[in-house]
Specification:
The protein has four helices and 17 strands. The protein is mainly β and 359 residues long. Strands 8-9-10-13-14-15-16-17 form an eight-stranded antiparallel sheet, with no helix packed on it.
């Protein structure tokens, strides 16, 4: 009995020693236990990430080139970038200043709509959009789709085409405690290429952002080529391309309004002008050309989107467009001695859509 009582005392002493270190932790946990009946406010967290389109989840084939991918490609204009996409045909109508159009599935440029920030670009004269005038300095992504996409919340004009090229421009983004960004670049290349550009972004408040982008491009395009006369045994001469000078000026200004988490507004003003020489065909020893083309384009467009509730959303867009084109061929062999044509276009456009989510 004496041995058993000694063992019992040692056993109880060991239990007490083991429980002493656990007592403060247990009492601390009980004092700081969360009240599950109380509502706690979680601090605000801001997550920013560029909008991504999932090509693999789309019912209709969609191809996307992001700004990061554009920087890795050896391209200067939108017309150069879309050549890397499958099923895309870019027609180049002569020289670096010639008309460049996009065609999907060989249906022609007239059946391929080009949209700029979700609003269609129009040309009533030819029905074809010159995508060579769009630079890549202000581009966030290029999206090409065959047929109707899964995005049904867009203007009706975009549904009327067999294919679509959407050019999405950059949205300003700012680091913490920074309200202004400035970017300056200068590109230079062969055959007199000079391409300076300027981009300024400013945040006046949490709701309003502003961006300004300007670019000028000039090139003489006098690249060398070998001229063969007759058969391979006939004479060969080294020539340079003539009448190929190009000058482009583009100015864009945009206002971004983040009115609330469910309400956004974008207002854009765009100006473009170009002066382009049009080289002609070289026939035997005659390589002279003097045709010239002047273009001007101004448009103001706005886009408004609001989530009314979980099921209803409203989207409205409006655009005013004015364009001018002047063509001159001073050496036309006709009665008038020249060919001179001038075209004007003015357009007002508005579109409103309501989206209902049934489930």
């Amino acid at each position: 009995m004496r041995i058993n009582s000694l063992l019992i005392r040692k056993f109880l002493h060991g239990i007490i020693v083991a429980l002493v270190p656990l007592y403060p932790q247990s009492s601390f946990a009980q004092q700081h236990k969360l009240d599950t009946t109380r509502i706690y406010a979680i601090p605000e967290i801001t997550i920013s990430e560029p909008y991504q389109i999932r090509e693999t989840r789309a019912a209709i084939p969609i191809q996307v080139i992001t700004a990061k991918e554009l920087r890795s490609l050896n391209v200067l204009q939108v017309s150069d970038a879309v050549k890397h996409l499958a099923g895309v045909i870019v027609k180049d109508y002569g020289g670096i200043g010639g008309l460049k159009t996009i065609s999907l599935r060989s249906l022609g440029a007239e059946h391929t709509v080009v949209s700029y920030d979700g609003v269609a670009i129009s040309d009533c004269q030819t029905g074809q959009i010159d995508i060579g005038r769009f630079s890549l300095d202000n581009i966030d992504r290029l999206t090409v789709s065959n047929g109707q996409t899964d995005n049904i919340f867009q203007p009706a004009r975009l549904f009327a085409s067999a294919g679509q090229l959407n050019i999405q421009t950059l949205t300003p983004s700012f680091k913490k405690d920074k309200s202004t960004n400035a970017y300056v670049s200068l590109k230079s290349g062969s055959w007199g290429l000079i391409n300076p550009s300027l981009r300024i972004e400013h945040k006046s408040s949490e709701k309003w952002l502003y961006s300004f982008n300007s670019e000028w491009m000039s090139a003489d395009g006098k690249y060398p080529y070998t001229m063969h006369y007759g058969n391979n045994n006939d004479s060969i001469s080294q020539e340079k391309r003539k009448n190929t000078k190009v000058e482009n000026l583009r100015i864009e200004s945009e206002l971004f309004g983040n009115l609330s988490d469910k309400e956004q507004l974008r207002l854009k003003a765009y100006y473009f002008q170009s002066s382009r020489d049009l080289p002609g065909a070289t026939t035997l020893y005659y390589d002279y050309a003097s045709q010239h083309l002047w273009d001007k384009n101004v448009f103001i467009q706005s886009k408004y989107k609001k989530e009314l509730n979980n099921r209803w959303a409203l989207q409205a867009s409006a655009k005013w467009n004015w364009s001018y084109q002047h063509y001159l061929d001073p050496d036309y062999k006709g009665i008038n001695g020249k060919t001179e044509n001038t075209y004007y276009q003015q357009e007002y456009y508005a579109s409103t859509g309501i989206l209902f989510r049934g489930w």
